[in-house]
Amino acid sequence: MTTRRTRPAPRPPEGTPPRAELARQARAVLADAVRIAHWAAGTPGPGTTAPLAAHALERAATALELSPAQVRAGWDRARLAGLIELHGDTARPGWRLRAWDRDDSAVLRGWVALFDAWSLVHAAPAGIEAGAVAEAVEAVPQVLSLLQLSAGPVTVPALLDLLGQRVAELHEERCEVPLGPGRPATAATTTGTTADQAEPAAGTADADLNALLLDWALEGLAAVGALTLGHGHATLTPLGNWAVWVKLEQICVAAQSPAGNIEQSAADMLLGCARLTPGPARDEYRAWLAARTVGSAVAELLAVARGQDALLRGLAFEALRVVGAPAEPEVRAVLAEPSLRPYALLWLAEYEGNDPDDAQDVLSREEATWLWVDTAAAVADHGETGLLVRHLDTAVQGTVPALLDEVRAVGHPRTVQVLVALAAAHPDPALAKAVRRAAFQVHTGGA
After folding, report:
1. Distance CA 109, CA 104 (A)
2. In angstroms, rounded to a whole number, what is the distance separating the alpha carbons of residues 208 and 199?
3. CB atoms < 10 A from the CB of 65, how many?
4. What is the pTM of this model?
5. Long-range CB contacts for residues 123-131, cutoff 8 Å, separation at least 24
6. pLDDT by residue (tens digit) across 45-100?
C-alpha cells in the first residue's frame, strides 16, 4: 500500500458551521421532500414525469397530513434533490434517500442540487419575457457573491443596483444596445423630442422589471433555504454562505481516500478508489478480488452497478475489467438491463479485443446518449464543475442543440439534475440559457 500526498482542501470562511450542522440544516429544509420521497417510494405508481397526478396528490396529502400545495412542492424538491427518481410510472428511491440519515455528504449534495435549481422551484412571475428571466438567472451568481463577501445583511437597493449592472453587461456582451444616446435613429426616433421621451420611459421600465425579477430571485433562493429576507435587506443563511463559498472555490466534497479496502464492501471499496489513478486503482481491485471467490465478487460488483450512484456503476465495471474472462457470462447476462447495457457492451467489446478508443462504436446513438447522461450524473455528484463542462466535448452529437434534443428524449432519470448542474457550471451565458431551458422542459414534461 502506498501513501499519497494531496493538497489540503481550502478551509471555509471563519464562522461556517461544521458539516454535521450544515447537514442538519439541509435535512430541515428538505424534511417534507424526504417524507414525500419515502411515501412515493413505497406507493405503486404515484406519478409520472409530469407533476403528481391528482389522485396521488390527494392520497399523499391525506397520508402525510400535508396540504396539496405542500405535497406538490415537496414532490418537485424531492426530484430535484435526487431523493426520488421516476422510471415510467414508478417512483424509486434515489441513492441519496437511502443514505439520507447516515451520510452528511449525500445530504449536502442533495441540497446543493436543489440550490442550483432554485429557478425551477419558484416559478417566475407571469407575463415576463423568457429572455429577461434567463438574464436574471445569469446575474444571480454575482448577487450571491456580494451577499457572501458582505458576510451579513445587504440592502435590496444595493442588490438591485448590482443586478441592473450585470444585466446591462449581458446586453453589452451580446451587442444588444439599449434605446438611448448613441443608437442609430429609426423612423420612430428621428425627432429629438420622441427620443428624449422614450429614453426615460425605457429606463423606468427596465428598473421596474429588474426590481420584479430581483424579488423573484430572492424569494426563490429563500424558498430553498439559501437566504433569509428582512425588511429591505437579504442575508445568506449558513447553508447559502457555505454553498456560494464552495462554488467560488470550485471544490466539491470528495470521496475519502483508500485506507485498506480488502475488508470493505464493494461500494465502499469503489468509493475508496474513486480518486486513485488507473494503475493504483487496479491494484486495489486485485487485492479486493483476491480475498473473495470470483462468483461472489462479480455478483457484489453487479449489485452495486444496479444502484443509483452513477459513479459506482462506472467503477464497478472498471473492477470487472480486472476480473476478465470469469466475469464474461454474468456481464453478458445484464445486456437486457437498460441501465447496465451500455457499460456491458463496452466491457464485452474490450474483452473481445477491440481498442478501447473504438469500443464506443458498439453503442447505438441512444445508448451513447444515455451513457453520456449517466457519466454526467457521476461528475455532477462527485466531480468538479470544470469536469462537467468539459464532459460536453465527449457527446456523440455534433452540436449542443442536437445533444439537448436527444438527452430530453433518452429518458434518463437524472436528466433534469444533470442539465441544471451543467447550466450552473457553464461559463457561456447563451449555452447555459439553452441548457436551463431544456432542464425546465424536461422538468415540466414539455417538448
Report:
1. 9
2. 14
3. 8
4. 0.64
5. 124/216, 125/212, 125/213, 125/216, 128/209, 128/212, 128/213, 130/437
6. 444 333 566 667 778 777 778 888 888 888 889 888 888 876 666 677 777 888 89
